[in-house]
Design goal:
Elements: E1 5-8, H1 14-23, E2 28-31, H2 35-43, E3 47-48, H3 52-56, E4 61-64, H4 69-77, H5 82-85, E5 91-94, H6 100-111, E6 118-121, E7 124-125, H7 127-132, E8 136-141, H8 144-155, E9 158-165, H9 169-198, H10 202-210, H11 217-228, H12 237-254, H13 259-276, H14 284-291
Parallel strand pairs: 1-2, 1-4, 2-3, 4-5, 5-6, 8-9
Antiparallel strand pairs: 7-8
Bound molecules: nicotinamide-adenine-dinucleotide.
Pfam families: NAD_binding_11, NAD_binding_2
GO molecular function: 2-hydroxy-3-oxopropionate reductase activity; NAD binding; NADP binding
GO biological process, one term: glyoxylate metabolic process
Amino acid sequence: TLPRIAWIGLGIMGSPMAENLIKAGYQVTGFTLEQDKLDRLAAAGGKAAGSIAEAVADADVVITMVPADPQVKAVILGEDGVIAHAGQGATIIDMSSITPQTSIAVAEAAAQAGKDLKVLDAPVSGGEAGAIEAVLSIMVGGEQADFDRVKPVFEALGKTIILCGPHGSGQTVKAANQLIVAVNIQACAEAVVFLEKSGVDLDAALDVLAGGLAGSTVLDRKKENFKKRDFKPGFRIDLHHKDMGIVTDAARSVGAALPVGAVVAQLVASLRAQGDGGLDHSALLRAVERLSGD
Ligand code: NAD
């Protein structure tokens, strides 16, 4: 029989991911802060719980997908959290993007709970579309045996699923992912403003660019956002700001220089300071437009 799943955090990513598990035949009990998201889970065939304790009570696997470190600490380590209420032998998989240190702290707290809990950090890349289509890249940190046991669960959510190393390693790889994505978006945004100011047909330009070495998943997925100035998230600037902080700190701690990443981190911070934190990260285009006098 399939493991019973508890899902905490049914936002832009969590909702479609939990629904993919339901489609794959899993029994999913969810908890999140918004009632409409709980209703959506129930309509999809899941069970809505009234608390974390209720959600995790009978679960073999508990998955968390919340915004950032403070929410992961509250949800997993808190008095009424996952570790306090999970059953003997449960596996806790945190798929949020957070600092490697917090993932390590979660693994240590779980080990000390005396319930034979297993922990994996398993952040994802691929965005809302990747979540909906179940083609996410899943970067995992933890022990091989725990990874092997829950691999079928990951396979219902993603396409590229790799154990990267011990606890926290998934988060380190995700930090690198966010660096690459931010710099790529920034380069595309600069190209779009340059092309438009030059009077070249943007559709033609982006189509031919996508077919050459300039092509990227970012260009494919964000092309329409750039063209239409449609900055509905997607992935919010606020969250990418968090991730640029994570990668900047992590890189400094190991002595890696991120000169271009540091500049893009400042542009993300500036967008946020101008009230654009709720927009999709493709709104880096706005920062370039402002710098270009538009
Ligand atoms: P979101 O804000 O849409 O969803 C977060 C959910 O967490 C909300 O439904 C909220 O109710 C829930 N939550 C927060 N605190 C909670 C608590 N104490 N108890 C229960 N539920 C709680 O965020 P998202 O875009 O789905 O992102 C979630 C994580 O995934 C973040 O770490 C983000 O960086 C990462 N991520 C997002 C994307 C993307 O494209 N949106 C892509 C890859 C990774």
